């Protein structure tokens, strides 16, 4: 089970696919957005993702309670949804220069569309795949529209029940999607490790028979690296040049050095998986000689008896295994033996 997106293959036999999510951290500056692309590429990210919408395609410009973020929200409290999306959106005319810069630097570039007009626009830019955001995973008409492009789809599963994920998966497959990736996601900002529940990843893979990864809103790299050990083949993290610069998602976004660390440590985690194996690996063969084994620790004459004083389990490992010491104690040696001689059966 693997999926190819441009020149990269996503699957368990390949290192994790790391996606840097720009979101609104460009702070409404194209120059900053392009600088973020450069920094993500320098950090080793394999892809950069945008979000494609306008405030008008997301919500209504109203100040009714329904359209105001709860004051308890630590990042966006008391803002209207419209004003929030007005701050966060990426102007559509920026997409092409951002995508072009990604391609120049060898990164895959794609986006999350939030309505059908965004899909049509992204198709005009020939994106290689699509991401469905967690808040849109119940928007089956949008999933159907994206699936009809025939391109790979990545669906975040934040807040979704098993039944809702099943509906999204079936809609995508029935509408023409052959390459599907689900991302375990917790839709809180930031998320905490305690409510991330990455043990869901292998269960999700078995249940829906597709590639599974992690859309991670926790701080740091620990959760994402751990997810690789559980089978995550793609990791998405929000990205910023500096949290101190502010930005709509800056508080839970990675800085360039952290993204670089994630790329390296996720790869190491993947490399460490290997296969189920016991006994010495080829690389351990040379180390076996430094195990403990039985050695004569005093000069002995023929006929002397082996005792706890002249027979000990020490390093290196050229003698008999320490498990034989009880068998050997009290036995006579059949020849003169020098101190430091490894014990073998022919000495008894």
Q: Class of the largest domain in CATH? A: Alpha Beta
| Secondary-structure element string | EEEHEHHHEHEHEHEHEHEHEEH
The CATH architecture assignment of the largest domain turns out to be Alpha-Beta Barrel
Sheet of most strands: 8 strands, parallel
Into how many domains do the coordinates divide?
2
The CATH homologous superfamily of the largest domain is termed: Aldolase class I
Number of strands: 12
Low-confidence stretches: none
Description:
The protein has an 8-stranded parallel β-sheet. It contains 11 helices and 12 strands. Helix 1 packs parallel to helix 4, helix 1 runs parallel beside helix 10 and helix 9 packs parallel to helix 10. The chain is elongated. By secondary structure, the protein is of the alpha/beta class. Helix content is 31%, strand content 16%. The chain folds into 2 domains: 227 residues, Alpha-Beta Barrel (TIM Barrel), CATH 3.20.20; 66 residues, Antifreeze-like/N-acetylneuraminic acid synthase C-terminal domain (Type Iii Antifreeze Protein Isoform Hplc 12, Alpha-Beta Complex). Strand 6, helix 6 and strand 7 form a beta-alpha-beta unit.
């Amino acid at each position: 089970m693997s999926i190819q997106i441009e020149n990269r293959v996503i699957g368990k036999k390949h290192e994790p696919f790391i996606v840097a999510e720009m979101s609104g951290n460009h702070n409404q500056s194209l120059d900053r957005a392009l600088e973020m692309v450069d920094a993500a590429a320098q950090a080793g990210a394999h892809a950069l993702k945008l979000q494609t919408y306008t405030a008008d395609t997301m919500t209504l410009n109203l100040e009714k309670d329904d359209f105001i973020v709860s004051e308890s929200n630590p990042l966006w409290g008391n803002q209207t949804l419209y004003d929030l999306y007005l701050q966060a959106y990426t102007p559509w005319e920026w997409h092409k220069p951002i995508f072009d810069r990604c391609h120049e630097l060898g990164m895959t570039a794609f986006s999350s569309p939030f309505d059908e007009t965004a899909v049509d626009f992204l198709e005009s830019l020939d994106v290689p795949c699509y991401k469905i955001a967690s808040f849109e995973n119940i928007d089956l008409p949008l999933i159907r529209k994206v699936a009809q492009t025939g391109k790979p789809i990545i669906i975040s599963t934040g807040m979704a029940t098993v039944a809702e994920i099943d509906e999204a998966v079936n809609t995508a497959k029935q509408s023409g999607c052959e390459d599907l990736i689900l991302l375990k996601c917790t839709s809180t900002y930031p998320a905490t490790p305690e409510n991330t529940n990455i043990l869901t990843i292998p269960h999700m893979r078995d249940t829906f028979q597709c590639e599974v990864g992690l859309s991670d809103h926790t701080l740091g790299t620990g959760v994402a690296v751990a997810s690789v050990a559980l089978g995550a083949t793609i990791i998405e993290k929000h990205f910023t040049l500096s949290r101190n610069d502010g930005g709509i998602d800056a508080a839970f976004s990675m800085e360039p050095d952290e993204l670089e660390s994630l790329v390296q440590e996720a790869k190491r985690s993947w490399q460490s998986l290997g296969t189920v194996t016991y006994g010495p690996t080829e690389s351990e063969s040379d180390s076996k000689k430094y195990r403990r084994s039985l050695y004569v620790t005093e000069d002995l004459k023929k006929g002397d008896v082996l005792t706890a004083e002249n027979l000990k389990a020490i390093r290196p490992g050229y003698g008999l295994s320490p498990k034989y010491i009880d068998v050997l104690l009290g036995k006579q040696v059949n020849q003169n033996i020098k101190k430091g001689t490894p014990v073998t059966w022919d000495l008894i």
